[in-house]
Amino acid sequence: xxxxxxxxxxxxxxxxxxxxxxxxxxxxxxxxxxxxxxxxxxxxxxxxxxxxxxxxxxxxxxxxxxxxxxxxxxxxxxxxxxxxxxxxxxxxxxxxxxxxxxxxxxxxxxxxxxxxxxxxxxxxxxxxxxxxxxxxxxxxxxxxxxxxxxxxxxxxxxxxxxxxxxxxxxxxxxxx
Length: 176
Description:
Blueprint: H1 12-23, E1 30-32, E2 36-39, E3 42-49, H2 52-61, E4 65-68, E5 71-79, E6 82-83, H3 93-104, E7 110-118, E8 121-128, E9 132-136, E10 146-150, H4 151-158, E11 162-163, E12 166-168, E13 171-172
Parallel strand pairs: 3-5, 8-12, 8-13
Antiparallel strand pairs: 1-3, 2-3, 4-5, 5-6, 7-8, 9-10, 11-12
């Protein structure tokens, strides 16, 4: 059997890169550059952001590193060639709301962000449009080998699940 006829599947870290590329980069102020292989088990996804405040907000809400067994994928946010660190002084739900508004104000999938108190604890709900994010991914369950995912679910893969002890629950816009 020739190498061309063998079934090949995209490694999960390439799927994660596509999650970042096809969600975060849907913004005129954000460029997700090609993933770099730093070593056999370390990869880097560089993201260049045109606005410094937006860069800080993104660095504060995106997962800084995703682990796939022995493979680590880091996200690095930069502005004008300088690496940006996350904001260290968020402290409350209102501050997290502002971060999401700043980070996604020009992202085509973002609708709004809400804070809801459930059983006495604040939860943040970034709300995304009712759209499907699709990209080629060697998916054998799809006729065209595409990944097809609801925007909120794709964003859930790239956002921190909690910030300062407050749960982040990406949501889809209301169906009304």
